Amino acid sequence: MGACHASCTVCGSSVTGLLYEKFSLEMFQCRNCEVVFTSPMISQTDTLARYSQRWFEQEYLPSYGIDPHHPSLAHLTARYQAELAPLELFRETGRLLDVGAGAGLFLVSARSAGWSGDYFDAEFR
Ligand SMILES: [Zn+2]
């Protein structure tokens, strides 16, 4: 993580670092409580405005390497299987809940690995 001057939105710690940039937003992580946040924080109105069909097709899908006119998730399988692997240690019911799931791409891959469950995120409009 790089250095930054954003204070944690949860615990208030000033020991935070730039983690990555996504959709033109800088994402920071608190080194005290590990929460990930944007700085400056964007409003709920601005957040929901990002969930437009235009944004979905022109920013979201391309960020995953998906052509909105010919969508395929095949190239994401290895990535998501690697993210699923650590969850196997805690697998009891085979069900998971993906919070902040975006379009639910992770759950689609999880289902192909035998998981079931649901996802939750803002609705695309
Ligand atoms: Zn914190």
Textual characterization of the structure:
It is a single chain. With 125 residues, this protein is α+β, with helices and mostly antiparallel strands. The chain has two domains: 1-41; 74-120, no CATH class. The protein contains four helices and six strands, in the order ββββαααβαβ. The strands form two sheets. The chain has a four-stranded antiparallel sheet, with no helix packed on it. The longest helix is centred in the middle third of the chain and has 11 residues, at 53-63. 6% of the residues are buried. The mean pLDDT is 87. The structure holds zinc ion. Zinc ion (ZN) binds at residues 8, 10-11, 13, 30, 32-33, 35.
- Structurally, the number of domains stands at 2
Helix/strand order: EEEEHHHEHE
What's the assembly state of these chains?
single chain
- What average pLDDT do the residues reach? 87
Structural class: alpha+beta
Bound molecules: zinc ion
Report how far apart the termini are.
Answer: 34 Å
Strand content: 15-25%
Give the strand line-up of the largest sheet: 1-2-3-4
Uncertain residue ranges: none
Task: Kindly state the percentage of residues in helix.
Answer: 25-40%
Specify the overall morphology.
Answer: globular
Q: How many strands, which pairing sense, and closed or not: the largest β-sheet?
A: 4 strands, antiparallel
CA-based gyration radius: 16 Å
H/I helix tally:
4
What is the count of β-strands? 6
